[in-house]
Amino acid sequence: MSSPPVPQHCPTPRELDDLELLTSGAAGPILGFNEPGSPITLDLPEALSLHLDEGNEVELVDPEGLPLARIAQTLRGLSVTPLAHAQFGPFRRLYLTPDLARATYAGRTVVPVTDLITDTQFEQLRALGPVLLVALVGRGSAAVRPVALLRATTAVADLVDGAVVAVPLTVHDTEADAALRSSVLAAYAGADPLVELIPGGAPLPVLAEIVAQEHPAPADQGLVLFFTGLSGSGKSTLAQALMDRLLEQGHRSLTSLDGDVVRRNLSAGLSFSKADRETNIRRIGWVAAEIARHGGVAVCSPIAPFDETRQQVRSMVEDAGGAFFLVHVATPLEECERRDRKGLYAKARRGEIPEFTGISSPYEEPADADVRVDTTGRSIEDALEDVTLALREAGYLDVRLDTADLVGSGFASTATGPAAVGARDSSSVAARRASSSAVEVRTPATPGAPLRVLFVCTANICRSPYMELRARTLLGSSTRVEFTSAGTHGFRAHEVDRTMATVLTDRGVSPELLASFVSRPLTRELIAQADLVLTAESSHRTFVLEEAPGAFRKAFTLGQFAESVDRVSTSLTGAALVTAVGHRRAGAIDAHDIRDPYRRGRAAAEASADQIDSLLQAVLTRLAGPQAGNA
Fold it and tell me: Could you read off the pLDDT of 389-436 as tens digits, one per residue?
């Protein structure tokens, strides 16, 4: 009698990278998944976890179904028994085990590479003699796409006495990452010297084509326009209207992934259970990401009620090198019900439709929308202008609407009367431009103008004034960046807290600069005027996004931004840096928060100042350029 088949599981891309580290022996002392203190983990469905707990094995396969390894439960975690190595993929020949790399390239200086090599680093490599360039291409390690990093690194290796190996070391956002990186590099170096590249420098001319591909202008980048909102909010209507305008202009290759159409084709057979609805969104996201990968524009309009799934789609798109532009069609539930031609909301309230979004299933409003649109009482063209204005200011698409288009048909409704018609004249459009929509969208710096940085804390008398005044002092006479600050619950016209003022004076801030400071509360106008908003805590960032959801791409905690700048090319500064970081941001975690020192004494103020100084040193040179001030 034959044994039952071993159940299979396809890990996530990050987990597949980790699996390759384990099976190649590169993870050093870590031998399997889920070992104590290890960042290398594997999430399994509950049924497979129970299967392992019963002493059975599970087979791990790649996305094509190729068995790669078997895992089993042990006292230390999940043991890994290799079955095969990945056979296909670009530059697969460079994925060597540590043993093979040491045997093949013995005697070379080992140099880890995570970004496109600059002219300064090129000269450093030439001085080192024979080198082995270890390209770290796992999820989150490289500042550019893995294939681009390998293309660039092999091109540089041909110009120096160099060889290249690819190592799928991933970033797990844990404190154990640094130890794992050290142990992986030690496995490849063995007894040979290990040297880190010095930061800074300009892009190499030989890599100009790759630089252009990795950092395209927004207007040249693949783009996913993702409309989300309740049923009846007007998202599909807005998406179709935008498609029509883009097709009329004819500048970009377009694909519509409308929720209802996708349901009949790509997702035929799926039910409306929560699991199947999320599967439908992920399918839309995967197709949209592939469209963006090839420079096209995908317009999607599903309900997409859950933030986790929207974030998964965002990751798919950004991993493909595309831009993800989120439009929250925030029409209230009451208005959506009033428009309901199909009677779906009424059926849901009677319990005839289970898990109906807005009634028996939640809609999680996005905090990261690029623009927020309420279509209540508005014409289609009127509401669409909010979206086209945001796209134009972000630099993605220049969709111009004729003045005559600004008065037109309203959104479908079962009701009659002025609210249902929703036509507006051009004066109301102009008024709205000057009010709410102006603070909902990003406002990039004008070319040549100083970058405007807004620091935010709670009361604008301790942390944010320290950031502002210290940053001004560190940059000295530089005119490339301007600094201001405000408080989420700020005092109006107060001086700097006395204890923090003493710390600032001791650290070189002039009495004149200190005396010129007056506190102020945070406003939507201040957010709109800033090119970059840096907050002391994640709670302050949340407050900013509640006031202006469209500020998502330019709002970070200071610690989050300091970590994020390491993910993008060192050649980027100013507004270009902010744009790039907006697409490759680190997560906002509690460890980034700067603790409030208010009324906690001199020691707390010094600790806060030390943390801020460390973060400013990491950020200011990247913002203003290496020649700016004293940073």
Answer: 889 888 899 887 654 444 445 665 544 333 333 333 333 333 333 333
Distances (CA, A) of 163 to 150, 195, 234, 529: 11, 15, 55, 48
State the alpha helices, DSSP H only, in 167-295.
177-189, 208-214, 235-249, 259-264, 274-293
Over residues 336-366, the pLDDT tens digits come to: 999 988 889 999 999 998 889 999 889 999 9
* Beta-bridge partners for 80: 71
- From the CB of residue 7, how many other CB atoms can be counted at a distance below 10 Å? 15
For residue 9, count CB atoms less than 10 angstroms from its CB and return exposed for 0-12, middle for 13-18, buried for 19 or more.
Answer: middle
Q: Which homologous superfamily does the CATH classification assign to the domain defined by 8-82?
A: Sulfate adenylyltransferase (3.10.400.10)
Q: Which CATH number fits domain 218-439: 3.40.50.300, 3.90.1170.30, 3.10.290.10, 3.40.5.50?
A: 3.40.50.300
d(CA 26, CA 631): 38
String of DSSP letters for 263-325: HHTTTTT--SSHHHHHHHHHHHHHHHHHHHHTT-EEEEE-----HHHHHHHHHHHHHTT-EEE
Of 271, 248, 246, 268, which is closest to residue 256 (Cα–Cα)?
Answer: 246
What per-residue string of b and e applies to 179-214 under the rule 16 or more CB within 10 Å gives b?
bbbeebbebbbeebebeebeeebebbeebeebbeeb
Which residues, 6+ apart, have CB-to-CB distance to 434 below 8 Å? Answer: none
* 394 contacts 444 by C-beta, under 8 angstroms: yes
CA distances from 169 to 14, 88, 273, 352 (A): 9, 18, 37, 50
Domain assignments of the chain as residue spans, ordered by start: 8-82, 92-214, 218-439, 451-624
pTM assigned to the model: 0.57
Considering only CA atoms, which of 170, 17, 11, 183 is closest in space to residue 95? 17
What is the pLDDT at residue 421? 31
Position 555, amino acid: A
